[in-house]
Amino acid sequence: MKSLLLIISFAFTLVYQSANIASDEVSDPEQNYAAYCASCHGIKMDAFVDRRWKYGSTDADLIKAIKIGYDDDGMPGFAETFSDKEIQELVDYIQAGIANVDQYSFESADASSTIKTEELIIRLDTVAQGFDIPWGLTILDDGSMLIAEQGGTLYKKTVDGALKSISGTPTVKSRGQGGLMDIEVDPDYKNNGWIYLAYSKPKPSGNEATTAIVRGRINQSGAFVDQEELFEALPYSSRNHHYGVRMEFDNDGYLFFSVGDRGDRNNNPQSLDNHCGKIHRIHPDGSIPKDNPFVDTPGAMPTIYAYGNRNPQGVALNPIDGSIWSNEHGPRGGDEINIIHKGKNYGWPVISYGINYNGTTFTEKTQQAGMEEPVMYWLPSIGVCGMTFVTSDRYQGWENNVLSGSLRFKYLERAVIKNNKIVHQEKLLENIGRLRVVEVGPDGYIYVGVESPGMILKLVPVY
User: Fold this and answer.
1) Would you put residue 187 in left (φ > 0), alpha (ψ -120 to 50) or beta?
2) Which residues pair with 276 in a beta bridge?
3) What spatial distance separates the first Cα and last Cα of the chain, rounded to whole Å?
4) What distance in Å separates the CA atoms of residue 123 and residue 114, rounded to the nearest whole number?
5) Which of 242, 275, 280, 329 is catalytic?
6) Catalytic status, residue 341
7) CA-based diameter of the chain, in Å?
8) Tell me: the pLDDT tens digits for 116-153?
9) Whole-structure pTM over 0.70, yes or no?
10) Domains of the chain, each with CATH number or no CATH
11) Do you find a cis peptide bond into 245, omega within 30 degrees of 0?
């Protein structure tokens, strides 16, 4: 349903994080593929399957993509990393892998299986399927479910199992990392019916888009009505990556949400005169809280709550103290978890545990005065996406743990917290698929959305 960049794409995250590697030290194409390509396309090249080639699939097309890149799609050039010989060998390796793709067995969730974890035995129940990329998910009090598909369709799964598309939702720019992304319901949803959608909004003319948030209601006919745009990130950009975007209400009813740096790390995240590379806070009606930290700062965007972020794709409420936590993508290495504090600078790109996708260094610093360090970071990057806290007593031993999805390694990670420090981690549901979203429903169960094939799964403890 969407045209994806299938020449070696933007997120060349290292499979085994290492120091910079000179091109004359690495010449084996399998090793180069594992180090620079597998994070997006998979060790088994599964991201190449059943997708359309945006810029062509001939040898010449691939050579151009690897060597020169496509900046608007987040694809850097690797002319300084690989010799011409290495590029040709890498192309040959990729073409051979695609030609023999039938030899690979791709993992999918098996609802009949059980999974033993450190604390529990889990059964997976498939509750909805048939999606392309389910990006956003929320479960309503009556047991129905709203699912946002990246391509732009909002679905409602009713309690009787019917899956219906909702008409009238905003037009999205579904390209690269853009599309229909997150869903939240108002804290007073029972009384007001407000539903919040975050998406990539196309500019009326030209090829630019931005992150936007709208709220509306679903009427009896299954249409999204009473729409009000609450937020529009500035500036618009022709780049098709790093939109963010996740939303979360805190205990005081404020709406927090993330906006990615839109691939412009040099201008956006450290400047307060734009919305990009930030965590924002607004009232549910879109108005600005009077105590936002930069309301009185000349030239600053008044919605900004914290800044210096790269591409946060998880925002969650800590049930213990009511703080807002976020996880975000690093570049090649350095995905992070942060506790979001009012007015703080999270350092991107001045401090980072990552390096450029082509192996070069953009900063030597991992800390600096006046900048917040992460609660934890991943090396290698896991392609973090989705985040929630376990607020239910259904999962004994998991209470108040934080869960993060992995796009890159295809698992759900459970992290144990003590005194706002992560003291233990466990990989769950390994090889389940690219895990895009994780939520805890009003029924206390954990739900995850995975790609290839697109489905929503419920984690059921087996006692």
Assistant:
1) alpha
2) none
3) 40
4) 4
5) 242
6) no
7) 65
8) 999 999 999 999 999 989 999 999 999 999 999 999 99
9) yes
10) 29-103 (1.10.760.10), 114-461 (2.120.10.30)
11) yes
